[in-house]
Fold AP-3 complex subunit beta.
Amino acid sequence: MLFCILKNFYKDIFSILIAFENNFQNILPSIKKLVYVYLVRYAEEQQDLALLSISTFQRALKDPNQLIRASALRVLSSIRVPIIVPIMMLAIKEASADLSPYVRKNAAHAIQKLYSLDPEQKEMLIEIIEKLLKDKSTLVAGSVVMAFEEVCPDRIDLIHKNYRKLCNLLVDVEEWGQVVIIHMLTRYARTQFVSPWKEVVMAVAQLYWHIAPKSEAGIISKSLVRLLRSNREVQYIVLQNIATMSIQRKGMFEPYLKSFYVRSTDPTMIKILKLEILTNLANEANISTLLREFQTYVKSQDKQFAAATIQTIGRCATSITEVSDTCLNGLVCLLSNRDEIVVAESVVVIKKLLQMQPIQHGEIIKHMAKLLDSITVPVARASILWLIGENCERVPKIAPDVLRKTAKSFTSEDDLVKLQILNLGAKLYLTNSKQTKLLTQYILNLGKYDQNYDIRDRTRFIRQLIVPNEKSGALSKYAKKIFLAQKPAPLLESPFKDRDHFQLGTLSHTLNTKATGYLELSNWPEMAPDPSVRNVEVIELAKEWTPAGKAKKENPDKKFYSESEEEEDSSESSSDSESESGSETGEDEEDSSGDSGGDSSESGSESEAGKKRVAKSSKAKGKGTPVFVPGKTHVLLHRMSGKGLAAHYFFPRQPCIFGDKMVSVQITLNNTTDQKIENIHVGEKKLPVGMQMHVFNPIESLEPAGSITVSMGIDFCDSTQTASFQLCTKDDCFSVSIQPPVGELLLPVAMSEKDFKKEQGMLSGMNETSTTIIAAPQNFASSVILQKVANVANVGAVPSGQDNVHRFAAKTVHSGSLMLVTVELKEGSTAQLIINTEKTVIASVLLRELKPVLSQG
C-alpha cells in the first residue's frame, strides 16, 4: 500500500522523506526497503532533496544487521548523483572489508555502478577489485569477477594469484557467477597457455571447444545433447553451438544423430537449426537414412521448413557425390508438387545443381521450361530463364519460344525476372539472331522506358554491347564471350561456417556479428608466459599471537594431556595454517599495526571467519560428548545378495582413529553359511571427488555362524553423497554403499550459553535457517526434545537459562564449521526451530529431518 502511494504521488512525497529521515531508526525494515526502492527510482529527478537521505544511509552502513548494511550500500550506489561519488567510494571501501560476505558481494556490485557513473575512479576501483579477488567466499567470487570484467578486463595480472582459487571455487559458485567466471577464465587461458593440454581444461563445453585437444573435446557432446530437453530458448542457443561444432568435428555428434530429428511440435527456428546439424553430419554411411527423413519433412505444413529442407537436399547432393543423381531426381519429382512454394524452391536448387553438370541434364531443362506457364514465384521464374539462357544452344527450339512468351508478359513481371528476360534475349540474339532479332529489339525497347532505373541501365548496356553501330566500342567484338562465358558453380555452404572465431555461447556467436562489449579470444602464444605468476606465496603463521607487553601464560592443564594428543593437536594446527595462510596473515598484520579497529578492519571471507571461530571454539570450549548414541543399524549387504555373507553398519558417534576429518563407521560381518568364508576385504572403491576412505584390514576367514565387527573411516566432505565400494571374499565381489544421515556428519561441541549467543549472532542473516513446528504440548518437554534432537543429530547440549529455549551445538567433521541448533517454545503448541551455520545446504537437510521428528507424538 505504501509503495503504491509513493508511486502515485512521487512529485510531492519528498517532503515526507524529511520525516522519515528524523525517525529512520524506528521504522520497520520492510518500510525501509520501500523507501529505498522509491529513492532509487526518483532521486535523479530531485537531486537536492535526495541528498537529505545520504546521512541516513551512512548510519545504515554501520547497522548490526548485514541485510540493512547491504541494502543501504545497494541504494546508495544506485543514486546517480555525481556529487556523492566520494561518499560512495568510501562506502564501497568499508563494505569490501565487511565481515559479512553478503555485504562484500554488494560492494562488488556497487563497483560497477560507480564506474558507470564516474569512469575517472577506475584506478581506485581496481585496488578494491584486487582486494576482493582474494576473497575466499563463493558468494563474492562471481560478483567481483563481473566487476573485473566491467572495469578492467585487460588487467590479466590481477588474476594470476587467484587463478587456482577461482578454479576450485567454480563448482560452488551460484549459476550466473559460474557463467561470468568461465568466460573470464576462457579469455585468461587463451593468453597464458601455448597448446591445449588437458591440464588446463575444465568441464565446460565452450571451454573444451576452445582449449581442449580434439581427443578430449568429445566429452562435451553428450552434455550438450542432454540440454535439448530444455525449453526452446535454451535449445536455440545449444543448437547454434552444436551447428558450429559439427562443421569441423562431425564425429563428436554422429552417435546422437537421432537426437536431431525434427519433431512436429518444434518451432520453426528449432527445425531449421536441426536441419543444419543433420546436413553437417551427413556422410556416405547415413545419407540414405537422412534422405528418407527429408522426404517426410518436405511434406510439412510449415512452408518455411519445407523450403529449408529442399535447400538441405541440395547441399547434401553437392557434398556427397554418390547421391547427387538421387537427390536431383527427387527434386525433379517435386516439380509436380501442388504447393507452389515447394516447386519454386526446387527450381532454385535444381538450377544450382545443374550448373555443376549441365551437359547431362538437357531433359530436365526442357521440363523446367514448361513450368513457366504455372510458376509465379519470381525467384523460380528467374532461375528457369537463367538456365535456359545458359543452355540456349542445347535447347535451340525451346529457348526462342520461351523468349516469345516472356516478351508478352514483360511489363507485368517482377524486376528480377525482367533482368533475366533481358539476359535471355541478349544470349539468343548472339546465338540465334535469325529467329530472335526482332523479339530482342522489342524487349530492349520495353526496358528502355521501364520505371526501374536498374532495368533501364541494363537495357542501354546490352543494346550498346550486342547491337553494333558506329559508336560501339571494342567490347562489341567480345559480346558472345562475355554473355556465354562458363560460370563457376555456386558453393552451397553452411551459414555457421565462419562463426567458430566467436566464443561459443556469446551474443556475438548467436548474432554472427561482433556485439558491443565482446572481448575476442587471443591467439595461442608461440611461447608460454611464465607460469610462476600464478604461484601464491605461502607465509608461515606464528603458532600463537601474544599482545605486546604481555607474557604468554602456560596452560596449567597442559601436563594433563598425553603426548599423542599433543602430536595430533600440532599436526591439526599445522594443516589449518596451510589452508588459511594468506588471509589470516593479512589480518594479523592489520591487528598488530593498530591502524584501525572494529569489525570494518577485518577482511576475511565467510569460510575463513568460520574457521577462525571454530578454531577458537575448539580451544576455549573443547570437544563435547555425544548426548545419545542411537543403536540403529543399516543393511550393507543382505545375506541373499552376499551368498551367505551378511553385513550391517552403524555410526558409533566417536572420534575416528584414522583421521580427524573422517566419520567412524562400524561394520558387523556375519557368516550365515555352514562353511567358512575366506579373505574378506574391501575391493574397488568408487568415491566422489574429494571423498576418502580408510578400510579395515583383510579378514583371513570367518567361521560358520561367526560374526566380527570392524571399523572404517570415511571422509564424506560434509555431504550426504554415497560412498560406494566392493566388499569382496575369496571367490566373489559384491557392490555395496554407505550413505550417511546428515546428523552423523557432526561432532558435538561443548560451549557456554554466552558463547553460543555470540557465535549465533555472527551466523545470522544468510547463515540462518528456520521453520515453525506444531505438536502436542507433551512433546515439548525438555527430556523429549533432547532425546529427539540427539537421535537425529550428533550434537552437544548447551546449558540454557531459559526453560522455553533449548540449545545444541556441533561442528561438521570435515571442515569444522559450527552448527548451532535452537528450539524455542512459543505459546500454545508451536515452536521455532532455528539452525545457524555457514553450511546452508547441510542446515536445510537437517531442518527437514528434525521437523517431522519434533512434530510427531
Residues 634-742 form a domain with the Immunoglobulin-like fold (CATH 2.60.40.1150). Residues 589 and 595 are 10 Å apart (CA to CA). The chain is about 50% helix and 10% strand. The longest strand covers residues 677-686.
